[in-house]
């Protein structure tokens, strides 16, 4: 930026490429740093799939997992399309620069060696090209991973709500005793606390990373918009590959943001639905001393589980719309 000072177009180009790399680096470091905690969460996910008690629970988990797979697939489709245009544009540029004395790189900057001489130019060019591809894949992988973790917790909350309703209905219809109801309710409460801890663990692991993601993504959209505006206003002759790259790039950034907002919105909804699940059950047909015990879960469910960006912003569909 300092070397390009005064040339706004070049400054924006350099910052945009570094900005997207910063997003990927933070996600990679954050995932590595919290690796032990995340492995524990993954073990919990595997255990849930192996110990699902009936077809209804498993079907619920499969249904939510399909939503996660669709989100991940959409995320990767946008990424692959962006990478395809990125490769087409830069390989064309490489072929054009091969026999010229002054050569341009994928990401222009100052280097402590002569970049115009072979094989320095070729090595630097393809290292930068690989770095750009790797950056896009890191962002897609981590975003899909966090989304799937949140959606799995949502599936477990739905199963827990169903189990609680069944327990209340059995007591109301006289199929189980009050003491057995209390034991079942205690197990559900412990499970509820376990899911709450899991959701908070995901938030604690990624809240700082997601704050940087939101900050960087906002600037990234501004940078790309500026580049498009410059192309249109100056009537520049731009290759179709670059136009395709910029278009899919914007879609990709918005898709990454959407999968966080969708998963977080689903988590918020399912966590508060525990209270509504109790309300819709036959609590009015059981003894008051048993009904009062349900208030612990009701009160706890009034505090929604959230995915936050640095404890400042809460991910939701409303946030995405804004």
TrEMBL record:
It holds the Pfam family 7tm_6. It is found in: Cell membrane. It is a multi-pass membrane protein. The keyword DNA-binding does not apply. GO terms for cellular component: plasma membrane. It comes from the Eukaryota. This is Odorant receptor 4-like. Residues 76-104 form the C2H2-type domain. The chain crosses the membrane at residues 12-33, 70-89, 205-232, 244-264. GO terms for molecular function: odorant binding; olfactory receptor activity; zinc ion binding. InterPro entries: 7tm6_olfct_rcpt (IPR004117), Znf_C2H2_type (IPR013087). GO terms for biological process: signal transduction. Keywords: Cell membrane, Membrane, Metal-binding, Olfaction, Receptor, Sensory transduction, Transducer, Transmembrane, Transmembrane helix, Zinc, Zinc-finger.
């Amino acid at each position: 930026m300092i070397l390009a000072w005064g040339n706004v177009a070049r400054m924006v180009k350099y910052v945009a490429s570094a900005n997207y790399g910063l997003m990927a680096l933070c996600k990679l470091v954050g995932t590595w740093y919290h690796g032990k905690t995340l492995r524990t969460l993954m073990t919990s996910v595997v255990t849930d799939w192996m110990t699902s008690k009936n077809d209804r629970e498993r079907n619920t988990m499969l249904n939510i997992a399909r939503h996660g797979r669709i989100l991940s697939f959409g995320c990767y489709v946008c990424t692959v399309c962006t990478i395809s245009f990125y490769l087409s544009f830069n390989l064309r540029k490489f072929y054009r620069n091969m026999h010229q004395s002054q050569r341009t790189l994928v990401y222009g900057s100052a280097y402590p060696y002569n970049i115009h001489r072979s094989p320095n130019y070729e090595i630097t060019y393809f290292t930068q090209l690989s770095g750009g591809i790797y950056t896009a894949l890191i962002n897609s992988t981590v975003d899909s991973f966090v989304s799937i973790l949140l959606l799995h917790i949502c599936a477990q909350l739905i199963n827990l709500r169903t189990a609680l309703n069944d327990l209340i209905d059995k007591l109301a219809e006289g199929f189980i005793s009050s003491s057995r109801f209390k034991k079942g309710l205690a197990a559900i409460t412990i499970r509820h606390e376990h899911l709450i801890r899991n959701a908070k663990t995901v938030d604690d692991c990624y809240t700082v990373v997601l704050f940087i993601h939101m900050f960087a993504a906002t600037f990234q959209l501004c940078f790309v918009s500026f580049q498009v505006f410059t192309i249109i206003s100056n009537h520049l002759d731009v290759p179709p590959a670059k136009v395709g790259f910029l278009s899919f790039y914007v879609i990709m950034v918005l898709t990454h943001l959407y999968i966080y907002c969708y998963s977080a919105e689903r988590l918020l909804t399912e966590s508060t639905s525990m209270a509504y699940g109790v309300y819709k059950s036959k609590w009015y047909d059981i003894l008051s001393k048993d009904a009062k015990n349900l208030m612990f879960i009701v009160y706890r469910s009034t505090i929604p589980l959230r995915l936050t960006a640095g404890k400042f912003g809460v991910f939701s569909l409303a946030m995405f719309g804004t």
